[in-house]
Design goal:
The complex is a heterotrimer of chains A (about 110), B (about 150) and C (about 500).
Chain A: H1 2-20, H2 24-44, H3 70-100
Helix pairs in contact in A: 1-2, 2-3
Chain B: H1 6-28, H2 37-55, H3 59-89, H4 98-101, H5 115-138, H6 140-143
Helix pairs in contact in B: 1-2, 2-5, 3-5
Chain C: H1 8-26, H2 30-54, E1 60-63, E2 74-77, H3 79-102, H4 109-128, H5 132-150, H6 156-187, H7 192-200, H8 206-223, H9 232-238, H10 241-267, H11 276-298, H12 303-324, H13 327-358, H14 374-388, H15 394-408, H16 412-437, H17 453-471, H18 473-489, H19 493-499
Helix pairs in contact in C: 1-2, 1-4, 2-3, 2-4, 3-4, 3-10, 3-13, 3-17, 3-18, 4-5, 4-10, 5-6, 5-10, 6-8, 6-9, 7-19, 8-10, 9-10, 9-12, 10-12, 10-13, 11-12, 11-16, 12-13, 12-15, 12-16, 13-14, 13-15, 13-17, 13-18, 14-16, 14-17, 15-16, 15-17
The chains are: A mainly alpha (about 110), B mainly alpha (about 150), C mainly alpha (about 500).
Chain lengths: ~110, ~150, ~500
């Protein structure tokens, strides 16, 4: 339970960084924090007290104690999507630096109205 | 891209081989232990990136590496789609598991139907893709010529 | 061979997207041919699938890998899916044909076509899937590819617009993932039909409303509902014209409106009687979108930015159609999805033609283009008339159905507002036509030539479809849009159709 609240706190910290920071790289880091928080929250959904990892081995064990494996697979997919998104954001940030010569978003305001 | 000092180069030469081997192990055992295609692919890409960072390279060598990893990445994707279509073409379902690939005995290396070839395809694609991504972000001058 | 075509909706564009980088190394122009062939094939199978539905089966089900419904991913093709798939593939093919010559402005041809194929794969995947995490994955595939497409030209405006679009869009995507995590925690399954059965017994606790609200925030960002619309007026003008046509025409509707209505109506089982607060919220946001989008569109000088604000306004129409909640309101909303996809796609393509021929988008500097670009001018005029709701074009019928639905629900003020703002829509669209295409007395006409043939074919194709939709609205209403509205209205009955019990 405490872990779930900590995930929400991490999400709020990341969201604060995205909203208030002026440097583009800090916005990207804040967005990565939001991704981590949501993935961690999702992985914790499958938690069970006294659970064991959901791997079938040769040692006989009771399968009813398995932690839920489905959220782990979904989180793997979500991490891959987050990787692609972060890579694209960084590429865009690099191109913006080449053109504007600054990372400050208050100076990158040519589109108005 | 410049290289790094000789200490880093010696250690990198030792480590890159082991990283590649460990990455291949994680890919091949994806149906038995945690890991699988994506995690193993990241390790394989890390081996290449380590070599590229430690030794540096000249521009034409980088362009060749970028072209080669781009081609390998596309091949990995096409391999994955054709694995999925194999069941479809043979008359049963898309992504069919058992009847096309053969389910081996549990806990052996060749078992689990489509999971092993799919992991290999994903490992190839992710490894090549991440290395191409690193090259494109690192030296963007030549990549934009097309 | 009936349900077996369903995986092809996703396989064809994705395999093409992987093949294009390989083939482009051998021959540079091969990417045009493969992409257009794939687009034509997609349109063909979506027409085939719709024709299958007009026969005996009301819904086509495909279980991937043969796994049972609660274990594996199920692909579901009912009338609502058919409507969305037809809109996506028609506008997609027109945009592909248009971009064969338009991409001469940019470098890196095969990259454009590869990304475009990925966007189409994602949009088709969203339309046909029956599994909630698969929905999220396809939303993210098409969204990430569209971020790259918006910033394709790597000019000043495009990079800024692309970055802003990317950050806001990804926050929305993360909200959707959070809501899916909460939903999975309660339902323990990912199949939408099984979730709807579980949700029926769940009750309207605060957790339920929190999940609904989080989904609404995520989809609102994707469909540019008014408080969350800040990315759209920057992103749609900066993208290349065929990408703008696809984005404004189908992207915001499939990812936002279709996904939201599939979840809210079929999975959560909300309806006007049981959850009036939610529908009033949709009505409120819809009215806000219509008013804000319409008034802001009037003040624009940039051609494409005006069309982007007009998209915000028209999404408002679709939202009030859904918010009214009875049969005619939903029919109007779905018909407007079709009409606006074709009409706005056509308008963005004509804007692209003007840009290709004259190199400018500023309305104060263009004039008298009708003499030198007659086909473009008349296509634009017909598209504007359709969107503004002039009979006998398609837009008239959709707004008529929304007004009829409002009158049935005794919301007369809403009917008056809808009719009023459609005149304002007519106002700003005619302003564009007047300024750019027909001559002013005190200005000379801008000298230029007509655009190449493939671009003309793409525009004329959309014109023909718009007029066919308007003139032949009765068969479309009876066989496609009406049953699609019934799919949404049946709510939890969706599960019985999919699971077969």
């Amino acid at each position: 339970m405490i872990a779930l609240f900590a995930c929400m706190l991490l999400l709020l910290i990341g969201l604060y960084a995205v909203v208030t920071k002026r440097n583009i790289i800090r916005i990207i880091i804040g967005f990565s924090l939001v991704e981590y928080a949501v993935n961690l929250f999702f992985a914790l959904v499958g938690f069970k007290h006294n659970g064991i990892p959901p791997i079938i081995t040769e040692v006989a064990q009771s399968r009813s104690n398995f932690v839920d494996p489905v959220p782990q697979a979904l989180v793997l997919t979500a991490i891959v999507i987050g990787l692609a998104t972060t890579a694209l954001m960084l590429a865009l940030a690099m191109r913006i630096y080449e053109k504007y010569r600054t990372f400050d978003i208050t100076e990158i305001r040519r589109l108005k109205g | 891209m410049r290289g790094m000092s000789p200490i880093v180069q010696v250690i990198a030469r030792l480590l890159a081989g082991m990283l590649f081997l460990f990455g291949t192990y994680v890919v091949l055992h994806g149906h038995l232990t945690p890991g699988g295609g994506f995690a193993g692919g990241v390790l394989i890409a890390a081996a290449f990136i380590l070599m590229s960072l430690a030794f540096g390279s000249v521009e034409h060598a980088e362009r060749n590496s970028y072209t080669l990893s781009s081609v390998v990445e596309s091949l990995g994707g096409i391999l994955f789609v054709s694995l999925a279509l194999a069941g479809y073409v043979a008359g049963t379902f898309f992504f069919q598991n058992a009847s096309v690939y053969g389910v081996g005995s549990p806990l052996a290396l060749i078992s689990g139907g489509i999971i092993l070839p799919a992991n290999i395809a994903i490992g190839i694609k992710v490894g090549a893709g991440l290395f191409a991504m690193f090259l494109a972000l690192g030296e963007s001058r030549f990549v934009m010529k097309d | 061979m009936d349900a077996n075509i369903l995986p092809l909706f996703v396989v064809i564009p994705m395999a093409t997207a992987f093949l294009i980088p390989l083939l482009a190394k051998l021959w540079q122009r091969s990417s045009d041919l493969t992409a257009n062939a794939a687009g034509a094939a997609l349109l063909g199978i979506s027409v085939y699938g719709a024709a299958q539905l007009f026969g005996a089966n009301p819904v086509l089900i495909y279980r991937m890998g043969g796994w049972a419904s609660s274990l594996g991913i199920t692909l579901v093709y009912d009338h609502l899916t058919a409507l969305v798939a037809l809109a996506v593939n028609a506008v997609g093919l027109a945009a592909l044909l248009f971009s064969v010559r338009y991409i001469d402005h940019y470098t890196g041809r095969w990259k454009f076509f590869s990304l475009f194929m990925l966007v189409l794969a994602g949009l088709n995947g969203v339309a046909i899937t029956g599994d909630i995490f698969n929905l999220f994955v396809f939303i993210e595939i098409s969204a990430v590819s569209s971020y790259a497409l918006v910033a394709f030209g790597t000019d000043f405006d495009e990079l800024e617009a692309g970055f802003k679009y990317m950050v806001i869009g990804e926050i929305g995507g993360t909200a959707i993932l959070l809501a899916i995590a909460l939903l999975y925690a309660k339902a323990s399954t990912l199949n939408m039909a099984v979730i709807s059965e579980v949700m029926a017994g769940f009750g309207r606790t605060p957790l339920f409303w929190f999940i609904v609200a989080t989904f609404l925030v995520g989809f609102a960002v994707k469909m540019a509902m008014v408080p969350f619309h800040a990315w759209l007026p920057d992103a749609h003008p900066s993208a290349p014209a065929p990408v703008s046509a696809l984005l404004s025409g189908v992207f915001i509707k499939v990812l936002g409106v279709y996904a939201m209505s599939r979840l809210m109506f079929n999975v959560f089982g909300l309806s006007r009687d049981t959850a009036p607060m939610f529908f009033n919220l949709l009505l409120g946001f819809g009215v806000l979108s219509i008013v804000a989008g319409g008034l802001l569109a009037y003040a624009q000088k940039d051609y494409k930015r005006l069309l982007a604000y007009s998209s915000v306004s028209q999404i408002g129409y679709i939202l009030i159609g859904l918010g009214i909640g009875n049969y005619w309101g939903i029919v109007g909303a779905l018909f407007h999805i079709l009409a606006h996809a074709l009409g706005k796609g056509l308008l963005f393509l004509t804007a692209g033609s003007v840009e290709h021929a004259t190199g400018s988008r500023d309305l104060d500097r263009l004039s008298g283009l009708e003499k030198s670009m007659p086909v473009t001018a008349w296509s634009h005029l017909l598209g504007s008339l359709s969107l503004a709701g002039v009979p006998p074009f398609a837009g008239f019928f959709s707004k008529l159905f929304i007004v009829v639905g409002a009158v049935y629900a005794k919301m007369y003020w809403l009917a008056i507002l809808a009719a009023l703002f459609s005149t304002i829509t007519l106002g700003y669209l005619v302003k564009v036509v007047n300024k750019a295409f027909f001559t002013h007395k005190d200005r000379e006409s801008t000298p230029t030539r007509e655009v190449p043939a493939t671009m003309l074919i793409a525009m004329l194709g959309l014109v023909v479809l718009t007029m066919a939709l308007g003139i032949g609205f009765k068969p479309v209403l009876d066989r496609l849009v009406g049953p699609a509205a019934n799919v949404l209205l049946q709510g939890i009955g969706y599960a019985q159709g999919v699971l077969g019990r």
